[in-house]
Amino acid sequence: MARKEFPGDPRRSADVVPYTPATSNGDGSIYYMVAFVSSMATLFLKNKWAGWIALYASLLSIFSDRASASSSGGGSRLSTVVLALTALLMSYMPEVVTLFKLAKQETGGVAAST
């Protein structure tokens, strides 16, 4: 039985296909959508885990973005980080307010002046 040559043999100059980089901008878009949906879930449901997922996904969205794609949609990627941080801040705000109230009660209700 005769041996069949592999199609696209690199030893043949006619069969060499030059590399062309991918032009799709879909690498970070899944992270972008996860970050946006998780941020909204954090704001509406006060779920802290969703807030941390939103922050992680928004950072992945920025870091997985290519340099050629960042010029067109870089601002929206940065806004997801701000939205995720704001959602986390709003979900942790009741604990922060409670700590300030407890600290104020311990000092006797008088604000310390410097």
From TrEMBL:
The keyword Transmembrane helix applies. Keywords: Membrane, Transmembrane, Transmembrane helix. It comes from the Eukaryota. Its main location: membrane. It holds the Pfam family ASTER. One of its GO terms (cellular component) is endoplasmic reticulum membrane. One of its GO terms (biological process) is protein insertion into ER membrane. Residues 1-24 are annotated as: Disordered. It is found in: Membrane. Signal peptide: none annotated. GO terms for molecular function: protein folding chaperone. The keyword Isomerase does not apply. Transmembrane segments: none annotated. Residues 1-14 have a biased composition (Basic and acidic residues). This is Protein Asterix. The lineage of its organism: Eukaryota, Fungi, Fungi incertae sedis, Zoopagomycota, Kickxellomycotina. The gene is WDR83OS.
